[in-house]
Design brief:
Strand order of the largest sheet: 10-20-11-19-12-18-17-14-13
Number of strands: 20
Helix content: 25-40%
Distance between the termini: 47 Å
Bound molecules: zinc ion
Structural class: alpha/beta
Radius of gyration: 22 Å
Strand content: 15-25%
Number of helices: 13
């Protein structure tokens, strides 16, 4: 058997003023055939899973390109078409193939393409033919479209948020595609559209128990795979919103019934039922001071300034708030300001000077901070782990303003794990509170060192209030913009 694997992924915040061209892919993560490292990035899990499968089962693997751009705004037409044509050309050259595996995100929007992944999979189907088993792994924050479902035999999304399971789900995908290619199973797919913009975290209830039950249902009673596409609310596309996808072995009615049952369960939590309380800056600081323990800070997540959601990551709102509490030992990172990083690196460790930093990328990102700073640490590359992958924040600096330590980075990436701070000499155990620029991916690595994790509402720049997002393309009715037509 011959297997092809490739990966093309980013997450597009159509409201963000940060545009993505081909160099954004090449600069972030770009591996021509055969050069993918032994560890996966978030969306290239199928490449690693395909290697493992080929080794274990004695299959021939033909690797295509794998690439990823940090989430931002619209992708250029040239970037998408050139990367698509590169991968489809590689697939064509690899024919005949029995299985084609794709590591995708599912919320990539390019100029002229609201559904890049559906378009890519349709091209793959046209080239590989009707009998090739086509499988795609998606991030759960995808826009699940009919075009994707029609073109692919198997779609499997991450189940966990934080996404601790991207490699596990890629292995599930590869295994199921092999079984389908061997005609041991006949995957049929049903989708239930919740007609709602919602979402949940699996680091807490009710999401935790829900996903545990999903996992327990797979592989039993002819249910092969269950995915919840939470959706990505910062993408103005027709299919934005939450959908449940169930793959059964030959029994479409059973798949449809289960998809609807699970979808209605999510709707039953009500709007915002799957997400925790969000604190305004002042109440979050007060709560952190109350809850912090000796050696264990409270971790505050600046969810709406998370580079992983396509925004800049330079919001100064929390720095401003913390500078009013100069007695509180605190740290915040990583904040994106390549110019300020350049100043700090040139000045060197120990230098003291007046620095202007951050608060520039959007009107809702606060204002630039002017402060007397001391450079505590510098690095040529702030490299941090996230599950099985490594993420670079580029050249970076740690600066101190009294009791407040700030990590400045020159590459946009979210604060996945404590080495963002510790690699630059910041001792988190000495802090009362630590602010991280991340929505929830920080959780797995930060929760073990935290007295408590709290979520912040700093007002932007991510479009956080779903009732007020100015969608032009979303299908209607769609809750909470409209009453849910299913309820
Ligand atoms: Zn995601």
């Amino acid at each position: 058997m011959r297997v092809f694997a490739a990966s093309l992924a980013t997450e597009t915040n159509t409201f963000a003023p940060l545009f993505v061209d081909r160099s954004a892919f090449e600069g972030a993560f770009y591996c021509p055939p055969g050069t993918h490292p032994a560890t996966p990035t978030l969306c290239s899990g199928p490449m690693i899973a395909a290697r493992e499968l080929a080794q274990r089962e004695g299959l021939t693997l033909i690797e295509g390109t794998a690439t990823w751009a940090e989430p931002a705004g619209l992708v250029s037409r040239e970037a998408y078409e050139s990367l698509r044509d590169e991968i489809i050309g590689q697939l064509k050259a690899a024919l005949p193939v029995d299985i084609a595996l794709f590591g995708l995100h599912g919320a990539m929007v390019a100029h002229g393409y609201d559904d890049c992944e559906g378009d890519l999979l349709a091209h793959a189907r046209a080239v590989a033919g009707p009998t090739c088993i086509i499988g795609a792994e998606l991030d759960m924050h995808c826009h699940l479209t009919d075009q994707m479902v029609e073109a692919a035999d198997v779609i499997n999304a991450f189940k966990e948020f934080p996404h601790t399971d991207f490699l596990e789900r890629a292995r599930d995908l590869a295994t199921l595609c092999l079984r389908a290619a061997r005609r041991e199973v006949r995957p049929v797919t049903a989708v239930f559209d919740c007609r709602a913009i919602s979402g949940f975290m699996t680091s807490q209830e009710p999401g935790r128990g829900f996903v545990d039950r999903m996992l327990a249902m797979e592989g039993r009673d002819s249910i092969l795979s269950i995915s919840v596409a939470h959706g990505f609310q910062a993408g103005d596309v027709y299919d934005v919103g939450t959908k449940v996808l169930v793959i059964a072995d030959g029994d479409l009615g059973k798949a449809a019934a289960l998809a609807e049952t699970l979808g209605r369960e999510i709707l039953g939590w009500g709007p915002g039922g799957g997400v925790p309380r969000h604190y305004k800056p002042e109440e979050a600081i007060a709560e952190a001071v109350r809850l912090a323990e000796p050696g264990r800070p409270v971790v505050l997540a600046d969810r709406w300034d998370n580079p992983g959601g396509g925004v800049a990551g330079d919001s100064s709102v929390m720095v401003d708030a913390l500078l009013k509490h100069s007695d509180i030992p605190a740290a915040i990172g990583a904040m994106w300001d390549p110019v300020a990083v350049g100043f700090c690196r040139a000045a060197g460790v120990g230098a003291e000077f007046r620095l202007r930093f951050c608060g520039k990328a959007a009107p809702t990102s606060g204002h630039p901070i002017d402060a007397d700073v001391r450079v505590r640490g510098i690095t040529d590359d702030l490299l941090i782990p996230f599950e099985q992958s490594w993420v670079s924040l580029g050249p970076a600096a740690a600066i101190s303003i009294g009791n407040l330590d700030v990590i400045l980075s020159s590459t946009r990436a979210q604060t996945f794990s404590p080495p963002v701070f510790t690699n630059l000499g910041i001792d988190l155990a000495a802090k009362t509170l630590v602010v991280v620029k991340s929505s929830n991916h920080f959780y797995a690595a930060f929760a073990p060192i935290a007295a408590k994790v709290l979520y912040l509402d700093t007002g932007g720049p991510y479009p956080s209030d779903t009732r007020k997002i100015p969608y032009k393309k979303a299908r209607r009715p769609l809750a909470p913009l409209d009453p849910n037509p299913l309820l």
